[in-house]
Amino acid sequence: MSQPMVLIVEDDAWLAEQQVRILTKAGFSATTSPHPIAAIKAIDTAHPDAIVLDVLLTGSTAFALMHELQSYGDTGGIPIIICTNLASELSLDNLRPYGVRRILDKTTMLPDDVVAAVRSVL
Amino acid sequence: MSAKRGTHEQLSGGPLGDGLSSLIAAAHELKAPLALMRQLSLTIEAGELSVGESRRMLRQISLTSERALRLTSDLTRSARLDDAMFALEPINPHQLCEDIVHELTPLFAAHGRDVRLMPRKHPLLLVANRDLLRRIIMNFGDNALHYAKDDSVVEIQIRALNEGKIIRLGVRDYGPALSTDLWRSLQTKLVTAPQPVHARPQSSGLGLYIASQFADAMHGTIGVIRHHDGATFYVDLHASQQLSWL
User: Is B28 at the interface with chain A, CB within 8 A?
Assistant: First the structure.
């Protein structure tokens, strides 16, 4: 059985590297994109089972990407985990229509929380 | 009571004297490096890394803390712009930029990127405050690091404009083209006070706003040029007349 694939959309290369390491160790496949345009290409090629998405990204925001994903039947169902420093300003109820299933607060989360969050949405 | 009132007045004025929003923007800007350092240190603490991995993460923590400290240092410097005397003096920009490249190289190398100073045939002199000019270029360097593609080179360029009356120091990155929306947003951020992040996607623009304040204090201006493969952030300053007297 192939490992579930997680796409990490994160413009901080060191944080993205950290999340790849943790998810890989937990048995997932993981790939990263630094911005939404690269993420759309990665989604087409990697067909992720879940997306870990930062909010403030280079060139565009997570919301533009979520709108784009919701526009297509094959991408609208991919569960999204928002991982952001702005968690206290976001409401999960408001973001559910965009496919968001969990919100992680970067300022308080533990490194392994990303694994638990991914497992909970698959 | 007076101490409390004083604190309240400082908060109302904000570190940049433009309202509480600048304080909130500063807090948001510092969240990212602090959150990264916390994640890295928790991972090291867990003790499941090889020696090499631990060393690499410790280096990342050091470099991230230095970037955060540069921002806090710029903020305090910015808050004192009005009541401090800033000596403007003739400065060799090539020498200054060489020092900056030397200082930024470890950070860029750790991110798999390079920074270099583009060579010039003829020496130039400009009028500036060495410390403020250094902070502006370091700020542009940090910005370019964020936008530059993996394995790309960020170039620091020095040019004479307007028949040699203006000297332009630019930091050119090679990355994704700026979208029209981001371009408009940057144009605004160069001249307006920073806003809380939730109101201004991507970032608060605090670093650019501080850079524009530093440039103002030296009778200069900052700007950005959009390329199909990246951007150049620049500061224009008056040339020194000393060379023409030789």
Answer: yes
Domains in chain A, number: 1
- At A5, which helix (H) or strand (E)? strand A5-9
Residue B183, C-beta contacts closer than 8 angstroms, at least 6 positions apart: B226
Rounded to an integer, the average pLDDT of B69-89 is 80
Dist CA A66 CA A79 (whole Å): 11
- SS3 for B122-171 is CCCCEEECHHHHHHHHHHHHHHHHHHCCCCCEEEEEEEEECCCCEEEEEE
Token pair, residue B135, equals 């902070």
Give B184→chain A minimum CA distance, Å: 12
CATH 3.30.450.20 fits B89-245, yes or no: no
CA distance, residue A36 to nearest chain B CA (Å): 11
Q: How far apart are CA A99 and CA A10, in angstroms?
A: 18
Contacts of A20 by beta carbon, 8 Å cutoff, 6+ apart: A8, A30, A31, A32
- Token pair 């045939």 in the structure block, residue: B121
* Number of alpha helices (DSSP H) and beta strands (DSSP E) in chain A: 5, 5
* Residue of B206 and B195 predicted with greater confidence: B206
CATH of the domain at A20: 3.40.50.2300
| Residue B30 confidence (pLDDT) | 87
Neighbours of B137 (CB within 10 A): 25
| Residues of A whose CB is below 8 A from B182 | 59-60
The model's pLDDT over B21-48, given as tens digits with 9 standing for 90+, comes to 667 777 778 888 999 999 999 999 998 8
State residue A17's pLDDT score.
94
> What is d(CA A114, CA B35) in angstroms, rounded to the nearest whole number?
14
* DSSP notation for A68-91: HHHTSTTTTTS-EEEEETTGGG--
Structural domain containing residue A81: 5-121
Give the integer Cα–Cα distance in Å for B239 and B115: 25
Q: Is A17 exposed, middle or buried (0-12, 13-18, 19+ CB in 10 A)?
A: middle
Give the amino acid at B211.
A
